């Protein structure tokens, strides 16, 4: 028997594993280079694992593998023509990842994964080395101008479409956010009622008011409810992110009306004491109409100065003699606490003072100094 025949017989008689294309085998790393690793798979030839078949990231294999590491791989070619076995780690991982995603799709399971790539049209995440694409429209329940903030962030999502044959596996984060907000809103409406005082965060400020996030639903703080005084521009008072303690004024369906006009701070509670009929008050002109001017006595307490009461002389329009912000002194001539109405008169105050100034002045003879007649020589 020749040496060649003896060696062939020896190989045939060895207890090697039987492998074929597509087989899954476990091996031990026996050598690692940056671009390739050699793996003992218990076969007559060692397996070859390139960095391209290790992962999609094409990492330096010496950074991720060490001699002696155990590794489960898939056989791509039992013989590449040079007697070597070509292996893949990433394809086995992708198959397992695909199976995992199929189960999650069928069970509507919420998954967690880190965003590996931000694309123009959405995000990519990897689940066990299987790519899942989340379109921009399904990333959030609100419009996202810039998706870069999600890079390397762990996010939750569900699989809304699973078609591995077309390489179409779609994730959806939006429906999770919508469902959670709906649940939070349900819990919020169960525990709040008009008259409650709650905390919130300013979400958006407009010309007519501010929307406040109450932790489950937004409430509207209308410009008329921002202060007992007059507010000209909400954007000069509030900013997005401001923390507020607000009063729930009303609830109609899913609409919540808010207020910062707390009843115990109502300036009209002490108005009768401070601005009774006959009082002389000082205020500033807040606004004007053709029939008169409204004078702010306190934030939230305005009084009407009718055009006929502005001066003793005839006045055609309040703006002819008054200006916004001007400080005036007037007399309270009418007070209605129930209707929150106060009427003023500058005319009457001026008339009374004029009468006082024109009144004759009498002196007591006893207070006069005696007159001394000096004889003239």
Describe the fold and architecture:
The protein is of the alpha+beta class and 377 residues long. The chain has helices at residues 3-13, 90-107, 174-191, 271-274, 346-358; strands at residues 24-32, 36-40, 47-50, 70-77, 85-88, 111-119, 122-127, 130-135, 154-163, 168-172, 197-205, 209-213, 218-222, 243-252, 255-259, 280-288, 292-298, 301-306, 327-336, 341-345. Helices cover 17% and strands 36% of the residues.
Secondary-structure map with pairings?
Blueprint: H1 3-13, E1 24-32, E2 36-40, E3 47-50, E4 70-77, E5 85-88, H2 90-107, E6 111-119, E7 122-127, E8 130-135, E9 154-163, E10 168-172, H3 174-191, E11 197-205, E12 209-213, E13 218-222, E14 243-252, E15 255-259, H4 271-274, E16 280-288, E17 292-298, E18 301-306, E19 327-336, E20 341-345, H5 346-358
Parallel strand pairs: 3-5, 13-15, 18-20
Antiparallel strand pairs: 1-2, 1-4, 2-3, 4-5, 6-7, 6-9, 7-8, 9-10, 11-12, 11-14, 12-13, 14-15, 16-17, 16-19, 17-18, 19-20
């Amino acid at each position: 028997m020749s040496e060649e025949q003896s060696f062939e017989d020896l190989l045939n008689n060895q207890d090697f594993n039987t492998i074929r294309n597509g087989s899954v085998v476990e091996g031990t790393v026996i050598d690692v280079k940056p671009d390739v690793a050699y793996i003992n798979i218990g076969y007559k030839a060692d397996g070859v694992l390139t960095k391209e078949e290790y992962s999609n990231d094409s990492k330096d294999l010496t950074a991720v593998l060490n001699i002696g590491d155990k590794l489960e791989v898939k056989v791509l070619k039992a013989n590449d023509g040079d007697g070597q076995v070509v292996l893949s780690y990433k394809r086995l991982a992708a198959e397992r990842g695909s199976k995992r995603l199929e189960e999650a799709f069928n069970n509507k399971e919420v998954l967690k994964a880190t965003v590996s790539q931000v694309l123009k049209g959405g995000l990519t995440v990897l689940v066990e080395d299987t790519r899942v694409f989340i379109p921009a429209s399904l990333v959030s329940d609100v419009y996202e101008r810039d998706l870069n903030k999600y890079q390397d962030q762990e996010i939750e999502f569900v699989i809304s479409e699973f078609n591995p044959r077309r390489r179409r596996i779609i994730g959806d984060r939006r429906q999770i956010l919508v469902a959670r907000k709906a649940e939070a809103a349900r819990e919020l409406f169960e525990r709040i009622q008009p008259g409650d005082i709650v905390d919130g965060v300013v979400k958006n400020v407009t010309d007519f008011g501010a929307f406040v996030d109450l932790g489950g639903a937004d409430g509207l703080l209308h410009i008329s409810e921002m202060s007992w005084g007059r507010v000209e521009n909400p954007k000069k008072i509030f900013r997005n992110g401001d923390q507020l303690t607000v009063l729930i004024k009303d609830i109609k369906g899913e609409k919540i009306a808010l207020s910062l006009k707390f009843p115990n701070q109502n300036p009209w509670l002490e108005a009768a004491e401070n601005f009774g009929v006959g009082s002389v008050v000082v205020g500033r002109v807040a606004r004007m109409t053709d029939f008169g001017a409204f004078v702010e006595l306190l934030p939230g307490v305005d009084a009407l100065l009718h055009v006929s009461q502005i001066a003793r002389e005839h006045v055609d329009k309040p703006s002819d003699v008054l200006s916004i912000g001007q400080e005036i002194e007037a007399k309270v001539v009418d007070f209605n606490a129930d209707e929150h109405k106060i009427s003023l008169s500058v005319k009457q105050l001026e008339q009374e003072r004029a009468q006082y100034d024109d009144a004759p002045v009498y002196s007591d003879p006893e207070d006069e100094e005696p007159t001394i007649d000096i004889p003239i020589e």
